[in-house]
Amino acid sequence: MRTSRLYPLLALILLCLALLPFGVGGYILGLLTVGYYYGVIAMAWDLLFGFAGEVNFGPSFLVGVGAYTAALLNHYQHWPIWACLIAGSLAAMVGGMVLAVPALKLKGPYFGLITLVAVLLLQNMLVLFSGVTGGEIGLDVPDVLTISDNGNYWYALGFMTISGAILFGLSRSPTGLILQASGQDAIEASALGFNVAKHKMVAFAVSAIFSGLAGAMLIFYLATVSVGTVVDLTIGAQVIIAAVMGGRRTILGAALGSVLLIIGNELLRPIGQLATFFVSATALVMILFFPGGFLGRLLRPEGRE
Amino acid sequence: MQAIQILIDGFAISSLYAIGAIGFTLMFGVSGVLNLSHGAIMVVSAVAAWAVAGALPVGPFGGALAGVVTGVVFAYATYLLVVRPIQTSRTIPGEEKEIFVLTGTLIWGIMLAEAVAYFFTNNPKTVLPLISGVVMIFGERTPSNKIMTAVIAWAVIGLLWLLVNRTKAGKTLMAAAINPRALTLLGYELSHIYLLVWGIYGVLVGLAGVLLGAFLGVSSDNVGTLTASAFSIVVLGGLGSVSGSLIAAYVVGYLETFTAYLIAPSIRTVPVLLLLVAVVYIRPQGLMGRR
Questions:
Q1: Is A112 within 8 Å of B106 when comparing Cβ atoms?
Q2: What's the complex ipTM?
Q3: Which of A72, A182, A196, B257 lies 20 to 30 Å from A130 when distance is taken between CA atoms?
Q4: What is the four-CA torsion angle of A214, A218, A220, A225, rounded to 10 degrees?
């Protein structure tokens, strides 16, 4: 689809979503609010995977660093929310840089393992120092963004829209193209005179800032932070499923995938524990038969598969 | 004597880690697949052994056999339902097949774990020990089953060595690991070799699951940790190197046991993770890696 036809459609969808609070109840709004925050995390993951070609098995490492930094500062130091959000994003950026160093040296499975280990180490540390962090039970966050369902919904939607615009814009910019080239063939990209390392560092930094900020915003919505909600490996797996289902290398598909994943889980709630099973099975069938994802055909630059 | 306890426990747990990790590394070496549903298949096998031994009058050995058979069945299911469709797909670009196999097996592992949790709950299951009773080793009361675990693991490693080094099928496997293209030129069907390696993998992973179930107990919540620990051992030893995995399994097993006994059981995996990070930074090819 041509970009010129895409923008009016996107604006229409966003308008409908913005008017949703006047039509549906607080419960559905709550679900979508969480879905939007995960949408940002999935888009940030897609920038790293789809464009920079780095397989990050631990998106929840960056999310967890951002969320816990914000939560600890708010809980113990009583920093105002805006300061906590900035601190959380910066901490996640530092985390992203820590991951970027091995990513530039290692490839494929080895880097994937490092990201997996990063999540497990963070999880172990949080449980080990549970006196400070609340461990598996969690830590309460005194401040919240707002107590109104509608307000929270609009915060999340606005956050997703702005992040989506920045990430999508970045992916379509010259920087995004160089990034894509570095991800697909690093040697050729550097032979053409592009600084692969610098571009990948930028991708890591941007991805980490948005993941950390989304994590920090999420905990100011949930008013609590725990290992199970922001760090656990299954959270990371959900993010990856969402991004691949929505269509890798499209950015916007990742947000769509996250919202659909949350809705899918909710629709299947009546069958209880098996809901995750069926959602995963759908994701598996999807990647086997439609590897491009929902938006693969629609949004891929130059319409390539 | 704590030292002897650590020696015995560490040896048993390391032998058990070794067979799971050897299966994982053999699979990568021969067919280039990293199977992220590894832990899930271990848990499914252990739960099958537990369920069969509990429901039918077959005794612990019958249960263990059922567990190993389940391991083979699910290894083939993983290959035929997930890995092969991706490898033969025309719509997935070649350079992205590796990441699709990783994602596909990751999702498949989640499905298996959820199914186990649904049908058998996520309570830890302890598989009946193969033999009961205790023996005295240097004045330490040791459950015979711990010794049995190590003996079985080493018997299997020995059999695998014979298979790979002394039989034609085994030599073909090694050839496929070294140069698959040359092997196809010699008229061998690669898909037959892949079927063979998935079968061997199924036996190893099923057995590792059953033994772990009898040793520590397993639950569907362990799936991620089990996959990560097999992955860590294999990377520590060097991807694709069987002898490296064997050594790494002992390093990891003993390091975990030392930490659990001398510092605190709650951080038993932390030193291993730190060691792994250090090894990957300093020597990315692992202890015995080829590349």
A1: no
A2: 0.81
A3: B257
A4: -110
